Amino acid sequence: MSEKMPIKALEQQLEDVISVKLKDQRIFRGHLTRCDMYMNLTLAEAEEMENEQILAKYGQILIRGNNILWIQIPE
């Protein structure tokens, strides 16, 4: 990844499936539909994951940037 600004790298992943781990240790996976300068994210077809198993399926969710521990994007 040649981008030095994380938000720019994230914007390049719009519509791709990403995984997001929250500070409370929950992991969500879904299609990234929006992101802003505060790293707030909107995921479509979101799923809550645990040990590679789906715990719950959601439609569209908003994740506040201050709750994010890490974001995994496809290579």
What is this entry, summarized?
This protein has about 80 residues and is mainly β. The chain has one helix at about 5-10, and strands at about 15-20, 25-35, 40-50, 55, 60-65, 70.
Q: Provide the number of structural domains.
A: 1
CATH topology: SH3 type barrels
Stretches with pLDDT under 50, minimum 5 residues: none
> How many runs of DSSP E, i.e. beta strands?
6
- What's the CATH first level? Mainly Beta
Whole-Å distance between the termini?
8 Å
Q: Give, in order, the helices and strands.
A: HEEEEEE
Percent helix range: under 10%
CATH architecture: Roll
Strand content: over 45%
Mean pLDDT: 92
Rg to the nearest angstrom? 12 Å
**C-alpha geometry:** globular
- Decide which structural class fits the backbone: mainly beta
Major sheet? 6 strands, antiparallel
Please state the oligomeric state of the protein chains shown: single chain
Count of DSSP-assigned helices: 1
Overall description:
By secondary structure, the chain is mostly beta strands. The chain has a single domain, classed as SH3 type barrels (Roll), CATH 2.30.30. 8% of the residues lie in helices and 52% in strands. It contains 1 helix and 6 strands. Strands 1, 2, 3, 4, 5 and 6 form a 6-stranded antiparallel beta sheet that branches. The radius of gyration is 12 Å and the shape is globular.
Describe the protein's topology:
Layout: H1 6-11, E1 17-22, E2 27-35, E3 41-50, E4 53-57, E5 60-63, E6 68-72
Antiparallel strand pairs: 1-2, 1-6, 2-3, 3-4, 3-5
Key features?
single chain; mainly beta; globular; SH3 type barrels; 75 residues; 8% helix; six-stranded antiparallel β-sheet
